[in-house]
Write a structure and sequence with these properties.
alpha/beta; 12-stranded mixed beta sheet; 3-stranded antiparallel beta sheet; 14 helices
Length: about 475
Protein backbone atom coordinates (compact mmCIF):
# COMPACT_ATOMS: atom_id res chain seq x y z
CA UNK A 1 0.00 0.00 0.00
CA UNK A 2 1.03 3.67 -0.32
CA UNK A 3 2.75 5.29 2.62
CA UNK A 4 3.55 9.04 2.35
CA UNK A 5 5.89 10.31 5.05
CA UNK A 6 6.15 14.06 5.70
CA UNK A 7 8.36 15.64 8.37
CA UNK A 8 8.12 19.09 9.83
CA UNK A 9 9.41 22.06 7.72
CA UNK A 10 11.62 25.01 8.62
CA UNK A 11 15.17 24.77 9.89
CA UNK A 12 15.45 20.95 9.72
CA UNK A 13 14.50 20.60 6.05
CA UNK A 14 18.02 20.80 4.72
CA UNK A 15 19.06 22.29 1.40
CA UNK A 16 16.01 23.01 -0.77
CA UNK A 17 13.99 20.37 1.20
CA UNK A 18 15.36 17.59 -1.06
CA UNK A 19 15.77 14.85 1.60
CA UNK A 20 12.04 14.91 2.14
CA UNK A 21 11.31 14.78 -1.61
CA UNK A 22 13.54 11.72 -1.93
CA UNK A 23 11.76 10.07 0.99
CA UNK A 24 8.37 10.73 -0.63
CA UNK A 25 9.45 9.29 -3.98
CA UNK A 26 10.84 6.19 -2.28
CA UNK A 27 7.58 5.44 -0.50
CA UNK A 28 5.50 6.06 -3.64
CA UNK A 29 7.73 3.72 -5.64
CA UNK A 30 7.41 1.03 -2.97
CA UNK A 31 3.64 1.35 -3.09
CA UNK A 32 3.56 0.89 -6.85
CA UNK A 33 5.79 -2.17 -6.60
CA UNK A 34 3.52 -3.60 -3.92
CA UNK A 35 0.44 -3.18 -6.12
CA UNK A 36 2.18 -4.85 -9.04
CA UNK A 37 3.67 -7.85 -7.29
CA UNK A 38 1.70 -8.62 -4.10
CA UNK A 39 -1.27 -10.91 -4.92
CA UNK A 40 -4.69 -9.59 -3.88
CA UNK A 41 -6.75 -11.17 -1.12
CA UNK A 42 -8.25 -14.49 -2.35
CA UNK A 43 -11.71 -13.22 -1.42
CA UNK A 44 -11.68 -11.03 -4.52
CA UNK A 45 -12.51 -13.94 -6.79
CA UNK A 46 -15.69 -15.38 -5.28
CA UNK A 47 -17.77 -14.68 -2.23
CA UNK A 48 -19.02 -17.58 -0.10
CA UNK A 49 -21.74 -19.48 -1.90
CA UNK A 50 -21.37 -17.54 -5.16
CA UNK A 51 -22.06 -19.67 -8.23
CA UNK A 52 -19.47 -19.87 -10.99
CA UNK A 53 -20.00 -21.27 -14.48
CA UNK A 54 -18.86 -24.76 -13.45
CA UNK A 55 -21.34 -25.06 -10.57
CA UNK A 56 -24.19 -23.68 -12.70
CA UNK A 57 -23.45 -26.14 -15.50
CA UNK A 58 -23.20 -28.98 -13.00
CA UNK A 59 -26.63 -28.04 -11.59
CA UNK A 60 -28.20 -27.94 -15.06
CA UNK A 61 -26.70 -31.35 -15.80
CA UNK A 62 -28.00 -32.74 -12.50
CA UNK A 63 -31.52 -31.39 -13.10
CA UNK A 64 -31.67 -33.01 -16.55
CA UNK A 65 -30.49 -36.35 -15.16
CA UNK A 66 -32.98 -36.11 -12.30
CA UNK A 67 -35.86 -35.31 -14.69
CA UNK A 68 -34.98 -38.27 -16.92
CA UNK A 69 -34.73 -40.69 -14.03
CA UNK A 70 -38.05 -39.44 -12.63
CA UNK A 71 -39.69 -40.32 -15.95
CA UNK A 72 -38.15 -43.81 -15.95
CA UNK A 73 -39.21 -44.34 -12.34
CA UNK A 74 -42.78 -43.29 -13.13
CA UNK A 75 -42.91 -45.78 -16.01
CA UNK A 76 -42.15 -48.57 -13.54
CA UNK A 77 -45.74 -48.33 -12.28
CA UNK A 78 -46.88 -49.37 -15.75
CA UNK A 79 -44.12 -51.78 -16.67
CA UNK A 80 -42.36 -54.47 -14.68
CA UNK A 81 -38.87 -53.28 -15.58
CA UNK A 82 -37.17 -49.93 -15.13
CA UNK A 83 -37.36 -48.24 -18.54
CA UNK A 84 -33.94 -48.41 -20.23
CA UNK A 85 -34.64 -46.81 -23.61
CA UNK A 86 -33.36 -43.43 -24.72
CA UNK A 87 -35.52 -40.42 -23.89
CA UNK A 88 -36.49 -37.48 -26.04
CA UNK A 89 -37.27 -34.04 -24.62
CA UNK A 90 -40.94 -34.56 -25.52
CA UNK A 91 -41.10 -37.59 -23.22
CA UNK A 92 -39.93 -35.78 -20.08
CA UNK A 93 -40.88 -32.53 -18.45
CA UNK A 94 -37.68 -30.53 -18.54
CA UNK A 95 -37.58 -28.17 -15.58
CA UNK A 96 -35.09 -25.31 -15.62
CA UNK A 97 -33.63 -23.07 -12.92
CA UNK A 98 -36.00 -20.33 -14.07
CA UNK A 99 -38.98 -22.66 -13.65
CA UNK A 100 -37.94 -23.45 -10.08
CA UNK A 101 -37.37 -19.79 -9.24
CA UNK A 102 -40.78 -18.84 -10.65
CA UNK A 103 -42.50 -21.55 -8.60
CA UNK A 104 -40.81 -20.54 -5.37
CA UNK A 105 -41.82 -16.94 -5.96
CA UNK A 106 -45.47 -17.95 -6.39
CA UNK A 107 -45.97 -19.46 -2.92
CA UNK A 108 -47.54 -16.36 -1.41
CA UNK A 109 -46.41 -15.30 2.03
CA UNK A 110 -43.91 -18.09 2.37
CA UNK A 111 -40.15 -17.57 2.27
CA UNK A 112 -39.19 -20.82 0.65
CA UNK A 113 -35.83 -22.39 -0.16
CA UNK A 114 -35.24 -25.46 -2.34
CA UNK A 115 -32.29 -27.71 -1.44
CA UNK A 116 -30.70 -30.08 -3.93
CA UNK A 117 -27.67 -32.37 -3.78
CA UNK A 118 -25.74 -34.30 -6.40
CA UNK A 119 -22.71 -36.59 -6.34
CA UNK A 120 -20.09 -36.35 -9.06
CA UNK A 121 -16.68 -38.01 -8.87
CA UNK A 122 -16.96 -38.76 -5.14
CA UNK A 123 -17.85 -35.14 -4.35
CA UNK A 124 -21.16 -33.96 -2.94
CA UNK A 125 -22.47 -30.84 -4.65
CA UNK A 126 -25.12 -28.77 -2.86
CA UNK A 127 -27.31 -25.94 -4.17
CA UNK A 128 -29.94 -23.75 -2.54
CA UNK A 129 -32.49 -21.61 -4.40
CA UNK A 130 -34.72 -19.15 -2.54
CA UNK A 131 -38.01 -17.42 -3.26
CA UNK A 132 -36.14 -14.11 -3.45
CA UNK A 133 -34.40 -15.37 -6.60
CA UNK A 134 -30.99 -16.06 -5.04
CA UNK A 135 -29.02 -19.21 -5.78
CA UNK A 136 -26.19 -20.46 -3.58
CA UNK A 137 -23.63 -23.03 -4.68
CA UNK A 138 -21.75 -24.65 -1.82
CA UNK A 139 -18.13 -25.74 -2.15
CA UNK A 140 -18.20 -29.39 -3.30
CA UNK A 141 -17.42 -31.78 -0.44
CA UNK A 142 -15.03 -34.67 -1.02
CA UNK A 143 -16.86 -37.54 0.68
CA UNK A 144 -14.69 -39.41 3.17
CA UNK A 145 -15.08 -42.91 4.54
CA UNK A 146 -16.63 -41.46 7.71
CA UNK A 147 -19.11 -39.46 5.58
CA UNK A 148 -20.23 -42.59 3.76
CA UNK A 149 -20.64 -44.46 7.03
CA UNK A 150 -22.76 -41.63 8.40
CA UNK A 151 -24.96 -41.73 5.32
CA UNK A 152 -25.92 -45.38 5.81
CA UNK A 153 -29.68 -45.23 6.32
CA UNK A 154 -29.75 -48.12 8.76
CA UNK A 155 -28.03 -45.89 11.35
CA UNK A 156 -31.15 -43.87 12.04
CA UNK A 157 -33.71 -46.47 10.91
CA UNK A 158 -32.55 -48.85 13.65
CA UNK A 159 -32.40 -46.06 16.24
CA UNK A 160 -35.89 -44.97 15.29
CA UNK A 161 -37.37 -48.45 15.50
CA UNK A 162 -35.73 -49.11 18.87
CA UNK A 163 -37.49 -46.08 20.27
CA UNK A 164 -40.94 -47.55 19.63
CA UNK A 165 -42.56 -49.04 22.71
CA UNK A 166 -45.27 -50.51 20.49
CA UNK A 167 -44.54 -50.18 16.80
CA UNK A 168 -47.06 -49.90 13.98
CA UNK A 169 -45.04 -52.56 12.22
CA UNK A 170 -45.79 -55.91 10.64
CA UNK A 171 -44.67 -57.83 13.73
CA UNK A 172 -44.02 -56.85 17.35
CA UNK A 173 -40.78 -54.91 17.69
CA UNK A 174 -37.87 -57.20 18.48
CA UNK A 175 -35.09 -54.63 18.49
CA UNK A 176 -35.35 -54.24 22.23
CA UNK A 177 -34.68 -51.66 24.93
CA UNK A 178 -37.21 -48.93 24.05
CA UNK A 179 -36.57 -47.36 27.46
CA UNK A 180 -32.90 -46.77 26.68
CA UNK A 181 -31.95 -43.09 26.41
CA UNK A 182 -30.98 -42.81 22.75
CA UNK A 183 -30.49 -39.06 22.68
CA UNK A 184 -26.65 -39.18 22.83
CA UNK A 185 -26.57 -41.55 19.85
CA UNK A 186 -29.06 -39.41 17.96
CA UNK A 187 -27.14 -36.21 18.74
CA UNK A 188 -23.86 -37.56 17.37
CA UNK A 189 -25.43 -38.98 14.22
CA UNK A 190 -27.58 -35.93 13.44
CA UNK A 191 -24.66 -33.53 13.94
CA UNK A 192 -22.63 -35.43 11.35
CA UNK A 193 -25.57 -35.54 8.92
CA UNK A 194 -26.10 -31.81 9.29
CA UNK A 195 -22.43 -31.09 8.58
CA UNK A 196 -22.60 -33.12 5.36
CA UNK A 197 -26.01 -32.07 4.01
CA UNK A 198 -26.19 -28.45 5.22
CA UNK A 199 -22.83 -26.88 4.30
CA UNK A 200 -21.88 -23.43 5.70
CA UNK A 201 -22.87 -21.52 2.56
CA UNK A 202 -26.37 -23.02 2.68
CA UNK A 203 -26.76 -22.33 6.39
CA UNK A 204 -25.65 -18.72 5.90
CA UNK A 205 -28.19 -18.13 3.13
CA UNK A 206 -31.02 -19.78 5.07
CA UNK A 207 -30.28 -17.43 7.95
CA UNK A 208 -29.93 -14.24 5.91
CA UNK A 209 -33.00 -14.93 3.77
CA UNK A 210 -35.20 -15.64 6.84
CA UNK A 211 -36.58 -18.66 5.01
CA UNK A 212 -39.41 -20.51 6.78
CA UNK A 213 -39.96 -23.45 4.39
CA UNK A 214 -37.36 -25.94 3.15
CA UNK A 215 -38.15 -28.07 0.10
CA UNK A 216 -35.76 -31.00 -0.34
CA UNK A 217 -35.47 -32.49 -3.82
CA UNK A 218 -34.10 -35.95 -3.04
CA UNK A 219 -31.47 -37.97 -4.83
CA UNK A 220 -30.14 -41.43 -4.10
CA UNK A 221 -26.50 -41.93 -3.17
CA UNK A 222 -24.79 -45.19 -4.10
CA UNK A 223 -22.72 -46.17 -1.06
CA UNK A 224 -19.37 -47.54 -2.38
CA UNK A 225 -18.83 -51.21 -1.68
CA UNK A 226 -15.50 -50.40 -0.05
CA UNK A 227 -17.37 -48.82 2.88
CA UNK A 228 -20.18 -51.32 3.25
CA UNK A 229 -21.96 -54.01 1.30
CA UNK A 230 -23.40 -52.38 -1.85
CA UNK A 231 -26.35 -50.27 -0.78
CA UNK A 232 -28.04 -46.95 -1.49
CA UNK A 233 -29.43 -44.00 0.41
CA UNK A 234 -32.28 -41.81 -0.77
CA UNK A 235 -32.13 -38.39 0.85
CA UNK A 236 -35.94 -38.55 1.09
CA UNK A 237 -35.38 -40.92 4.03
CA UNK A 238 -33.16 -38.55 6.06
CA UNK A 239 -34.86 -37.05 9.16
CA UNK A 240 -34.17 -33.46 8.10
CA UNK A 241 -36.50 -32.10 10.80
CA UNK A 242 -34.10 -33.24 13.53
CA UNK A 243 -30.83 -31.97 12.02
CA UNK A 244 -29.03 -29.35 14.15
CA UNK A 245 -29.41 -25.77 12.93
CA UNK A 246 -28.04 -22.71 14.73
CA UNK A 247 -28.80 -23.21 18.43
CA UNK A 248 -31.69 -25.57 17.82
CA UNK A 249 -32.80 -27.94 15.06
CA UNK A 250 -34.23 -27.54 11.57
CA UNK A 251 -37.89 -28.01 12.57
CA UNK A 252 -37.62 -25.01 14.93
CA UNK A 253 -37.01 -22.75 11.92
CA UNK A 254 -38.51 -24.47 8.87
CA UNK A 255 -41.36 -26.68 7.80
CA UNK A 256 -40.06 -29.51 5.60
CA UNK A 257 -41.44 -30.76 2.28
CA UNK A 258 -39.89 -33.67 0.38
CA UNK A 259 -40.53 -33.12 -3.34
CA UNK A 260 -41.18 -36.15 -5.59
CA UNK A 261 -38.87 -34.47 -8.12
CA UNK A 262 -38.30 -31.27 -10.04
CA UNK A 263 -41.60 -31.93 -11.81
CA UNK A 264 -43.25 -30.61 -8.63
CA UNK A 265 -42.15 -27.14 -9.74
CA UNK A 266 -43.75 -27.49 -13.16
CA UNK A 267 -47.31 -26.63 -12.10
CA UNK A 268 -48.70 -23.56 -10.33
CA UNK A 269 -48.72 -23.90 -6.51
CA UNK A 270 -51.97 -25.19 -5.03
CA UNK A 271 -53.59 -23.03 -2.35
CA UNK A 272 -53.81 -24.44 1.18
CA UNK A 273 -57.27 -25.79 2.02
CA UNK A 274 -59.27 -23.69 4.43
CA UNK A 275 -61.40 -26.63 5.56
CA UNK A 276 -61.87 -30.37 5.07
CA UNK A 277 -65.33 -31.34 3.78
CA UNK A 278 -65.09 -34.94 2.60
CA UNK A 279 -62.83 -37.23 4.62
CA UNK A 280 -62.27 -40.95 5.00
CA UNK A 281 -60.83 -42.19 8.31
CA UNK A 282 -59.72 -45.72 9.19
CA UNK A 283 -57.72 -47.17 12.08
CA UNK A 284 -56.45 -50.30 13.85
CA UNK A 285 -57.60 -53.07 11.53
CA UNK A 286 -57.89 -56.46 13.25
CA UNK A 287 -55.96 -59.05 11.28
CA UNK A 288 -53.65 -61.85 12.38
CA UNK A 289 -50.68 -61.88 12.92
CA UNK A 290 -50.52 -58.09 13.19
CA UNK A 291 -50.58 -56.70 16.75
CA UNK A 292 -53.39 -54.56 18.13
CA UNK A 293 -52.85 -50.77 17.89
CA UNK A 294 -54.98 -49.03 20.53
CA UNK A 295 -53.29 -45.70 19.82
CA UNK A 296 -54.16 -45.94 16.12
CA UNK A 297 -57.78 -46.70 17.01
CA UNK A 298 -58.04 -43.72 19.38
CA UNK A 299 -56.33 -41.53 16.79
CA UNK A 300 -58.81 -42.49 14.07
CA UNK A 301 -61.77 -41.83 16.38
CA UNK A 302 -60.38 -38.41 17.34
CA UNK A 303 -59.85 -37.44 13.70
CA UNK A 304 -63.35 -38.58 12.73
CA UNK A 305 -64.96 -36.57 15.55
CA UNK A 306 -62.90 -33.51 14.66
CA UNK A 307 -63.97 -33.71 11.03
CA UNK A 308 -67.53 -34.85 11.65
CA UNK A 309 -67.25 -38.02 9.59
CA UNK A 310 -67.67 -41.77 9.99
CA UNK A 311 -64.79 -43.87 11.30
CA UNK A 312 -63.88 -47.44 10.36
CA UNK A 313 -61.92 -49.34 13.04
CA UNK A 314 -61.07 -52.91 13.89
CA UNK A 315 -63.16 -55.40 11.84
CA UNK A 316 -64.78 -52.61 9.81
CA UNK A 317 -61.41 -51.21 8.73
CA UNK A 318 -61.61 -52.96 5.38
CA UNK A 319 -59.84 -52.35 2.09
CA UNK A 320 -63.12 -53.01 0.24
CA UNK A 321 -64.81 -50.23 2.20
CA UNK A 322 -62.08 -47.75 1.25
CA UNK A 323 -62.09 -48.84 -2.39
CA UNK A 324 -65.84 -48.37 -2.67
CA UNK A 325 -65.64 -44.98 -1.00
CA UNK A 326 -62.92 -43.72 -3.32
CA UNK A 327 -64.79 -44.87 -6.43
CA UNK A 328 -67.78 -42.81 -5.33
CA UNK A 329 -65.82 -39.80 -4.00
CA UNK A 330 -62.77 -39.59 -6.30
CA UNK A 331 -63.73 -36.06 -7.30
CA UNK A 332 -64.52 -34.77 -3.80
CA UNK A 333 -62.49 -36.56 -1.10
CA UNK A 334 -59.98 -34.14 0.46
CA UNK A 335 -58.48 -36.28 3.27
CA UNK A 336 -57.68 -39.99 3.47
CA UNK A 337 -56.43 -40.83 6.97
CA UNK A 338 -55.13 -44.37 7.52
CA UNK A 339 -53.83 -45.30 11.00
CA UNK A 340 -52.65 -48.84 10.40
CA UNK A 341 -49.67 -51.13 9.76
CA UNK A 342 -47.30 -50.37 6.91
CA UNK A 343 -44.75 -52.66 5.26
CA UNK A 344 -41.97 -51.51 2.92
CA UNK A 345 -40.12 -53.86 0.58
CA UNK A 346 -36.94 -52.74 -1.16
CA UNK A 347 -36.76 -55.71 -3.55
CA UNK A 348 -40.34 -55.51 -4.81
CA UNK A 349 -41.54 -52.03 -3.83
CA UNK A 350 -44.73 -51.98 -5.89
CA UNK A 351 -46.24 -55.38 -5.16
CA UNK A 352 -44.88 -56.11 -1.68
CA UNK A 353 -44.95 -52.65 -0.10
CA UNK A 354 -48.43 -52.64 1.43
CA UNK A 355 -50.88 -51.06 3.84
CA UNK A 356 -52.74 -53.53 6.05
CA UNK A 357 -56.54 -53.70 6.37
CA UNK A 358 -58.76 -56.12 8.26
CA UNK A 359 -59.76 -58.05 5.10
CA UNK A 360 -56.53 -57.87 3.06
CA UNK A 361 -53.57 -55.67 2.13
CA UNK A 362 -53.28 -52.92 -0.48
CA UNK A 363 -50.09 -52.76 -2.52
CA UNK A 364 -48.34 -49.69 -3.87
CA UNK A 365 -49.08 -50.81 -7.44
CA UNK A 366 -52.82 -51.07 -6.69
CA UNK A 367 -52.82 -47.67 -5.01
CA UNK A 368 -50.94 -46.12 -7.94
CA UNK A 369 -53.71 -47.26 -10.30
CA UNK A 370 -56.27 -45.03 -8.55
CA UNK A 371 -57.33 -41.75 -10.12
CA UNK A 372 -58.23 -39.15 -7.48
CA UNK A 373 -59.08 -35.94 -9.29
CA UNK A 374 -59.82 -34.12 -6.02
CA UNK A 375 -56.09 -34.05 -5.13
CA UNK A 376 -56.57 -35.13 -1.49
CA UNK A 377 -54.18 -35.07 1.43
CA UNK A 378 -53.25 -38.67 2.31
CA UNK A 379 -52.04 -39.45 5.83
CA UNK A 380 -50.31 -42.81 6.21
CA UNK A 381 -50.05 -42.95 9.98
CA UNK A 382 -48.11 -46.19 9.84
CA UNK A 383 -44.58 -47.61 9.77
CA UNK A 384 -41.98 -47.24 7.00
CA UNK A 385 -44.34 -45.64 4.47
CA UNK A 386 -41.53 -43.44 3.07
CA UNK A 387 -39.40 -46.49 2.24
CA UNK A 388 -39.20 -48.78 -0.78
CA UNK A 389 -36.67 -49.18 -3.57
CA UNK A 390 -34.19 -46.36 -4.13
CA UNK A 391 -33.61 -44.97 -7.61
CA UNK A 392 -31.41 -42.10 -8.72
CA UNK A 393 -34.15 -39.50 -8.21
CA UNK A 394 -35.68 -40.90 -5.04
CA UNK A 395 -37.70 -43.84 -3.74
CA UNK A 396 -40.52 -45.91 -5.22
CA UNK A 397 -43.00 -47.16 -2.65
CA UNK A 398 -46.28 -46.32 -0.96
CA UNK A 399 -45.73 -42.56 -0.84
CA UNK A 400 -45.07 -42.21 -4.56
CA UNK A 401 -47.99 -44.54 -5.27
CA UNK A 402 -50.41 -42.13 -3.58
CA UNK A 403 -48.78 -39.19 -5.32
CA UNK A 404 -49.24 -40.93 -8.66
CA UNK A 405 -52.87 -41.66 -7.76
CA UNK A 406 -53.49 -37.93 -7.44
CA UNK A 407 -52.70 -36.95 -3.84
CA UNK A 408 -51.58 -33.35 -3.44
CA UNK A 409 -49.47 -34.24 -0.41
CA UNK A 410 -48.70 -37.44 1.48
CA UNK A 411 -47.70 -37.82 5.13
CA UNK A 412 -45.12 -40.62 5.31
CA UNK A 413 -42.80 -42.21 7.89
CA UNK A 414 -39.15 -43.29 7.89
CA UNK A 415 -39.13 -46.10 10.44
CA UNK A 416 -41.30 -48.22 12.73
CA UNK A 417 -43.10 -45.54 14.72
CA UNK A 418 -44.42 -45.73 18.26
CA UNK A 419 -48.19 -46.21 18.54
CA UNK A 420 -48.82 -43.79 21.43
CA UNK A 421 -46.47 -40.96 20.38
CA UNK A 422 -47.79 -41.14 16.82
CA UNK A 423 -51.37 -40.88 18.08
CA UNK A 424 -50.58 -37.61 19.86
CA UNK A 425 -48.64 -36.22 16.90
CA UNK A 426 -51.34 -37.03 14.36
CA UNK A 427 -54.23 -35.77 16.47
CA UNK A 428 -52.52 -32.40 16.83
CA UNK A 429 -51.59 -32.36 13.14
CA UNK A 430 -55.13 -33.00 11.87
CA UNK A 431 -56.60 -30.45 14.29
CA UNK A 432 -54.33 -27.82 12.75
CA UNK A 433 -55.02 -28.85 9.14
CA UNK A 434 -58.76 -28.77 9.84
CA UNK A 435 -58.38 -25.22 11.13
CA UNK A 436 -56.87 -24.11 7.81
CA UNK A 437 -53.11 -24.45 8.29
CA UNK A 438 -50.96 -25.59 5.36
CA UNK A 439 -50.07 -29.24 5.85
CA UNK A 440 -46.32 -28.76 6.27
CA UNK A 441 -46.82 -25.91 8.75
CA UNK A 442 -49.29 -28.06 10.70
CA UNK A 443 -46.80 -30.94 10.88
CA UNK A 444 -44.05 -28.55 11.96
CA UNK A 445 -46.18 -27.21 14.83
CA UNK A 446 -47.28 -30.71 15.87
CA UNK A 447 -43.69 -31.97 15.87
CA UNK A 448 -42.48 -29.09 18.04
CA UNK A 449 -45.32 -29.72 20.49
CA UNK A 450 -44.79 -33.48 20.76
CA UNK A 451 -41.03 -33.01 21.04
CA UNK A 452 -41.49 -31.20 24.33
CA UNK A 453 -43.02 -34.38 25.76
CA UNK A 454 -41.06 -37.01 23.83
CA UNK A 455 -37.54 -35.64 23.36
CA UNK A 456 -36.21 -38.78 21.69
CA UNK A 457 -36.29 -38.12 17.91
CA UNK A 458 -37.59 -41.67 17.46
CA UNK A 459 -40.98 -40.48 18.67
CA UNK A 460 -41.54 -37.42 16.48
CA UNK A 461 -38.93 -37.06 13.69
CA UNK A 462 -40.04 -39.97 11.50
CA UNK A 463 -42.81 -38.17 9.60
CA UNK A 464 -42.51 -35.77 6.68
CA UNK A 465 -44.63 -34.24 3.93
CA UNK A 466 -44.14 -35.72 0.45
CA UNK A 467 -45.37 -33.47 -2.34
CA UNK A 468 -45.29 -29.73 -2.93
CA UNK A 469 -45.68 -26.74 -0.59
CA UNK A 470 -49.08 -25.09 -0.70
CA UNK A 471 -49.52 -21.40 -1.40
CA UNK A 472 -50.27 -19.35 1.71
CA UNK A 473 -52.19 -16.14 1.09
CA UNK A 474 -51.85 -14.02 -2.02
CA UNK A 475 -48.71 -13.96 -4.14
CA UNK A 476 -46.70 -10.86 -3.27
CA UNK A 477 -45.36 -8.60 -5.99
CA UNK A 478 -41.56 -8.13 -6.16
CA UNK A 479 -41.94 -4.67 -4.60
CA UNK A 480 -43.68 -6.14 -1.57
Amino acid sequence: MFRIHFTGGGKNQGTNGRPHQIRLYAWLSLGIITLLFVPPNPAYSQTAGQCDRTSENRLDEAIRAHNNDSYRKERKFEEVWYYQGSLSEKMTRQISRDTISSYLGGLGKRKTAALFHWVHEEKLWTWLMTSSGRMVCATPRALTQEDWKTLLARNWAVLGARGARQARAAVPDELGQPDEDQRPQWASLLARLSEILLPPEVVAELKSSNSDTLVVVPITLAIPATYDKPTTLSLSTVPFAALPFENGIVIDKFSIVIAPGFSSFGKPPKAARQQLRDSFVLGNPVRSPYPDLPGAEDEAKHVAVRLGTEVFVRESAKKTVLETYLKQHSASVDLIHLATHGIANAKDPLDKSVLVFSDSSWSARQIGALRLTSKPLVVMSACQTALGKDFQSGTIGLAQAWQRAGASNVVMSLWSVDDTATKELMEHFVDLVASGQAVDKALQTAMISVRHKYQNPSNWASFSIYGAPERIGAVLSPMQ
